[in-house]
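User: What would this chain look like folded?
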Amino acid sequence: MKKRKIKHSIKKKVKNHKKKFKTIRKKEIRIPIGIPNFDNLIEGGFEKNSINTIVGGAGSGKSIFSTQFLIEGLKNGEKCLYVTFEEKKSRFYHNMKDFGWDLAEFEKKGLFIFLEYTPAKVKTMLEEGGGEIENIVISNKVSRIVIDSITSFALLFEDELAKREAALSLFNMIREWSCTSVLTLEEDPGEDKKTASKSMEFESDSIILFYYARNKAKRKRYIEILKMRGTKHAREIYQFDIGKKGISIRQDPIPSFKSA
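Assistant: Here's the prediction, encoded as structure tokens.
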């Protein structure tokens, strides 16, 4: 009789624990990306205040994906920051207008901030423990941030240990800002990772790979979610298109994939 009571008590505790765990998962806040069919692959969006790294070569769609992520926030009245080491403001605004995204208008409303930065300034920011970016994020209550790209920042450090430490410092600083962040890394996903890349990817809450692969006589774009902490994400590779409204992911995964 006692054994039955004990067994019943254990079952009840396990059941209550499962219910509690499910409740916790339901309370997780998801930040929608705004890309058709993509949010369905990651349980509704990025986890709030997470750091997400986009890895892909030139022309793979990283900057468009990142901007589309910000546009979704801007439409909802969120404050968004775009930090770039290479892009000029006028050119960037002109290119994004092709997708119907009037960033200048959002800037006038005080919602969008475009910041041209240098990798050296980021290095100084880490050494000083703050800087211009942090002031902008805190004073404007920025909720979404894109840094495009962190590749040139990694090149500032010759020593591998210094690269790892710098990557760790950068990610720790971003986490203190309480923003949902997207960082782009220009690198062919099919190539061997460098130590700096490995360090940055290890610290990321998610890694999304962009392929721009040649299929016969034509190049096509593909996306793969390599990892996403705390998320039951799709593990297949999907083809995506870049149209007049930005990126849209095709609904069905591709049967086979070969990067070239």
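The chain has one domain: 30-249. If you want, I can go into more detail on any region.
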